[in-house]
Specification:
The complex is a heterodimer of chains A (about 170) and B (about 110). Chain A is built from 9 helices and no strands. With about 170 residues, chain A is mostly helical. Chain A has 2 domains: about 1-80, Rna Polymerase Sigma Factor, Chain: A, CATH 1.10.1740; about 85-170, Arc Repressor Mutant, subunit A (Orthogonal Bundle). In chain A, α2 crosses α3 and α4 (about 55-75) packs across α8. Chain A is globular. With about 110 residues, chain B is mainly α. Chain B has a domain at about 1-60. Chain B has 6 helices and no strands. Residues about 95-105 of chain B have low confidence and may be disordered. Classes of the chains: A mainly alpha (about 170), B mainly alpha (about 110). At the A-B interface, α1, α2, α3, α4 and α6 of A face α2, α4 and α5 of B.
Chain lengths: ~170, ~110
């Protein structure tokens, strides 16, 4: 049984780590603690997973619950880390317009209220369907849709604020 | 009046951005957007946002998995790190009994 669960769970570790890392604003230690806790709980509840179920969504549900119940509550909201510090790949010359946009988008996402941030990341970064996202976060699908819409409008607003206005005269 | 009939719901706008709108409806919504430049600009921005998120975070999937996480999946680690700060009686209840004896010296 241990072997079977290992083979099934192991392929999902990279995306669990990515989600945890972004949720915890690139605190690697705490992110991997969160993933480890998720994996330990998944194994201890392995008999509860209904095959053929959606294992990836099940694992994300466990991680989400630990984050909401234990991690997010315990931690005061940390300062947003400078994006360049945590995305070495993004430390590129600032004169590249699309890269600037990338940084602004990431910064804006990290400034969102937690529930909107989780929803946006699950749908866009992790590619979960709206139904899966509703299951993972434990809310009705209508709530997922309104969080998504609000999150995107907020990010759009922040990016527009930071960017030099186009086609509008500044006086 | 046709405009009112075809006017998309906010959910459909989000689904369009995520590529989750069914193809027939997508054609209608795109036709509606062609006549509504403000909303079309919003959809363009949100699509660019989506693409930026995919770009920004895709590299995070390639990091090598630390040994402690592999051990966790193999069932060799039973103490959940998030619980380390919890009261001792709780840790004992939730994992201590399973790890009796051999794990005591950790």
């Amino acid at each position: 049984m241990a072997r079977a669960s290992f083979d099934l769970i192991e392929p999902h570790i990279p995306s669990l780590r990515r989600y945890a890392l972004v949720l915890l604003r690139h605190d690697e230690q705490r992110a991997d603690d969160l993933v480890q806790d998720c994996l330990v709980r998944a194994l201890s509840r392995w008999h509860l997973w209904r095959r053929p179920g959606n294992l990836r969504a099940w694992l994300f549900t466990i991680l989400h619950n630990i984050y909401v119940n234990d991690v997010a509550r315990a931690a005061a909201r940390p300062d947003v880390v400078e994006i360049q510090d945590y995305f070495p790949a993004m430390a590129v010359p600032p004169n590249q317009a699309d890269r600037i946009q990338l940084r602004e988008v990431v910064t804006a996402i990290q400034g969102l209220p937690d529930e909107q941030r989780q929803t946006l990341l699950l749908v866009t970064m992790e590619g979960f369907s709206y139904d899966e996202t509703a299951d993972i976060t434990g809310v009705p699908i209508g709530t997922v849709m309104s969080r998504l819409s609000r999150a995107r409008d907020k990010v759009r607003g922040s990016v527009a604020e930071d960017a030099p206005p186009r086609g509008r005269r500044v006086t | 009046m046709n405009d009112v009939v075809n006017s998309p719901l906010e959910n459909e706008i989000q689904a369009l951005v995520d590529g989750r709108l069914d193809p027939a409806r997508r054609v209608e919504v795109e036709a509606w957007l062609a006549a509504h430049p403000d909303e079309a600009a919003r959809v363009r921005d949100m699509s660019a946002q989506r693409a930026a998120v995919e770009d920004a975070f895709s590299g995070l999937l390639d990091r090598p998995v630390p040994a402690r996480l592999r051990s966790a999946v193999e069932g060799r680690v039973q103490t959940a790190p998030v619980m380390r700060g919890w009261p001792r009686w709780w840790r004992w209840l939730s994992s201590g009994r399973r790890a009796a004896g051999s794990q005591m010296k950790r």
